[in-house]
Specification:
The protein has about 240 residues and is α+β, with helices and mostly antiparallel strands. It has helices at about 5-20, 20-25, 30-45, 65-75, 80-90, 95-110, 125-130, 155-160, 215-220; strands at about 1-5, 50, 115-120, 135-140, 140-145, 170-175, 180-190, 190-195, 225-230. The model has no long low-confidence stretch (mean pLDDT about 90).
Length: about 240
């Protein structure tokens, strides 16, 4: 089985940018989107490739392009996806939107870490996760909290619940270069798990009890966040997902 890395993907995108007509037929962001959907489907369905593990933060998975477009557009959400966010910005002109996409993508590819803060989880934080005090996972794609219906009476309906993280150790808040927001990651005994969002500010990650994507919705209040030494591309020594 051949390993396929984000670096390989980035090289393919460089080729598309250089000669879009060869890959897409014509310069159109809709055709690029369709091409990438088909490409990812082929990777996932054929089983001929597997993701290559990386221990460094960058390059980010292309999925984060949705979030990056949200930040660049200053949109409230990434739900529309990078294609629709950029099309809207360009007055629904597909050719202009393709040019704008590659402007954003070039910057996305050069993202660096500006600073990192780390919070070693307290025993109380870890117990909150292990005992599922605030939130729990009930399938590979669903989490439930008291606010959205999680309680001891509906376990049978949801299925067996389990903690969000296995052996959590620390939380990282990573400031991105160029004023492009913040990433958050949870370190476990075996890996580094990135939360699938780019946050506009650190206050959305730590201290916002209403944010379902904050690690505090899993661990409770985190009070030990401290700035640590940071390189442009941090290497955690564990697989980054």
């Amino acid at each position: 089985m051949t390993e396929f890395s984000e670096d390989d993907f980035y090289q393919m995108m460089k080729s598309i940018k250089k000669r879009p007509g060869v890959y897409l037929g014509t310069a159109d962001i809709n055709l690029l989107y369709a091409f990438l959907v088909g490409f990812n489907l082929a990777l996932n369905e054929t089983g001929a490739y597997k993701p290559k593990s990386q221990t460094s933060l960058f390059p980010l998975k292309f999925w984060f392009m949705h979030e990056f477009a949200k930040v660049k557009k200053k949109a409230g959400s990434s739900v529309a996806g990078w294609k629709n966010i950029i099309l809207s910005e360009c007055g629904n002109d597909p050719r202009a939107a393709l040019d704008r996409f590659f402007e954003y993508y070039d910057e996305f590819c050069t993202l660096k870490a500006k600073s990192i803060k780390k919070a070693v989880l307290s025993e109380k934080n870890i117990l909150a996760n292990d005992n599922m005090l605030y939130t729990a996972r009930v399938s590979s794609f669903m989490t439930v909290t008291p606010s959205n219906g999680f309680n001891d009476d509906n376990d049978e309906f949801f299925g067996n619940k389990r903690p969000i993280y296995d052996s959590p150790q620390a939380v990282y808040v990573i400031e991105l270069s160029g004023g492009n927001g913040f990433l958050c990651a949870v370190e476990t005994a075996s890996d580094i798990q990135l939360i699938d969002h780019i946050f506009y500010s650190i206050d959305e990650i730590i201290g916002d009890e209403d944010n379902d994507d904050s690690p505090e919705r899993v661990f409770g209040p985190i009070t030990t966040l401290t700035e640590i030494e940071c390189s442009d591309n941090p290497d955690f020594g564990k697989p980054v997902h």
